[in-house]
Amino acid sequence: MTSSSSSTPLTIATIAQISAMVSEKLTTKNYITWQDQVLPIIEGISMANHVLYDSKEPKATITDSDGKEEQNPLLPIWLQEDRLVKSLIIATLSPVVRALTVRLTSAREVWKTLEECFANSSKQRARDLLRKLQEVLKDDHPTLHAYLQEVTMISNELAAINQPIDDGDKVYWSLNGLGDKYESFVTAMQVRPPPPPFDEFTNLLADYEKRHKSKFANENQTLIASCGRGCFSGNNRFFRGGTIFRGRGGSNNKNSSMHSDSPSPSQTMSQKTNKAQRPAIICQICNKLGDKAIRCYERLNHAYQEEDVPKALVALAINDPQDPEWIPDTGATSHLTNDAGNLSNLRPYKGRDKIIVGDGKKLKITHVGDATIRTSSGNLLLKRVLLVPQIKANLFSIGQFP
C-alpha cells in the first residue's frame, strides 16, 4: 500500500522546506535528538512505512483479470516516494554521517543503518554521562564555579540525547560531590524538602562559599595578629595550650602531633661560652655573633629558618589571593601537604613516623620536600615539608619558625 493519498504530497520542493525544520543535523553524538525531530515529520506526511517497516518494493508486473501481464502502476509511485523520503533523511545528515549512506538504495536501508550505528551507542553514551555526573567532585576543580559548570555541561549533554535529568537529581548529585568542606551546607539542604530549582541552588551555594571564605579569612587574620603579639617570646619559646615548642635552644614538646617509633636526636646546648672570649664573627647559618658555621647546632636542622622569618610571618596575609592553599597551624609540629605538586626537591620518606590527627588516626608520610608560599610581599620558603596524601589541608607549622 502506497501513500499517494497523503494530504501533504512529497516533492523536491517540500523536501527542502521540511529538512529546514530540523534544527540540527545528525552527528555521531545526537542520534536520539535527531530521531526525535525527523521521525514525527516522516509520520506527519504518511511515509513512515518506508522507514519503520520492511516495506517491499511492488512487483514490476501484475496479471490482469484476463490473465495477461501488465506493468504495475504502483511501482513508479512507490519508487518516487521512497526516493524522496531517502532524500529527506540524507538532507538532515552531517557530512561525516552522510558517508555511511553511500550506495544504499532505499529509505529503509538508510534508516536501519543509522539506527544500528547510533542507537546503541547513544544509550551507552547516556549511561556514561550519568556515571560521570555521579562521580564529578568539587575537589577535582579549582573553583566552585568550575565544578558547577561541569555539572551543568554534563546535564546539557544528557538533555541533548533526549535523556534529561530534573533539577532535583542535579541538586542531589551536586551536593554529593561537594565534599567535607561543605558538610554544613549539604546537611541544611538535605533537611529542606523539596530541593530548590538548580539555579536557586547554585546561588545559595555561591553565597555560602562567599560567607565561609570571609569568615575563614577573618579567623586567619586574627591568628596571625595574635602570633605577632605573643607567639614568639624572648627565649624563643612558643606556647599553645599544653604544648611547648622551643626555638633554637632546645625542644620540650608535651603534646606533639608527631608520633614516632624511634627517639629523636637532642639539640640542647650543654655549655655556654664566654661571649667576651669569642672572636667577632657572625655565623653564616644562624647569624649569631661569635658562632661558627662548622660548629653551629643548626647546620643539620633542615627545619631551621632565618631569624627574620617570624617577622615575615607576622606580616603574611593568609588570605593572600596569590597562594590561598596554605593554612597556619599553631599545633602542627611539621609543615604538611597533601599534594606532591607543591613540593620541590622531593625525596622518599624513609622514617617510621606518622601524623596523628584530631580523631586519633595515624596518617602515613610518603615523601619529604621543600615548598614555597607565594605572598604579595615575597616568597616564604618552607624546608622539610612532609607529604601526607590523606591530610585534608596544607598546613604550615608556626612552631617551626624560631
| Helix share bin | 25-40%
Compute the average pLDDT: 73
Q: Which radius of gyration do the C-alpha atoms yield?
A: 37 Å
Order of helices and strands: HHEEHHHHHHHEEEHEEEEEEEE
- Gap between N and C termini, in Å? 95 Å
**Principal-axes shape call:** elongated
Strand content range:
5-15%
Estimated structural class? alpha+beta
Q: What are the low-pLDDT stretches, counting only 5+ consecutive residues below 50?
A: 1-7, 218-279, 307-323
How many β-strand runs?
13
Order of strands, widest sheet: 7-12-11-8
User: Major sheet, described briefly?
Assistant: 4 strands, mixed
Count every helix, treating DSSP H or I runs of 4 or more residues as helices.
Answer: 10
Protein name: Retrovirus-related Pol polyprotein from transposon TNT 1-94-like beta-barrel domain-containing protein
Biased composition (Low complexity): 256-266
InterPro entries: PolX-like_BBD
Region (Disordered): 243-275
What does this structure look like?
- The structure is a single chain.
- By secondary structure, the chain is an alpha+beta fold.
- Among the domains are: 12-60 and 70-122, no CATH class; 136-211; 326-400, no CATH class.
- It is 37% helix and 14% strand.
- Strands 7-12-11-8 form a four-stranded mixed sheet, with helices on one face. A three-stranded antiparallel sheet has the order 5-9-10, with no helix packed on it.
- Helix 1 runs parallel beside helix 3, helix 5 (107-135) packs antiparallel against helix 6 (144-160) and helix 9 (198-231) packs antiparallel against helix 10.
- The chain starts with 11 loop residues before the first helix and ends in a 5-residue tail after the last strand.
- Residues 256-266 have a biased composition (Low complexity).
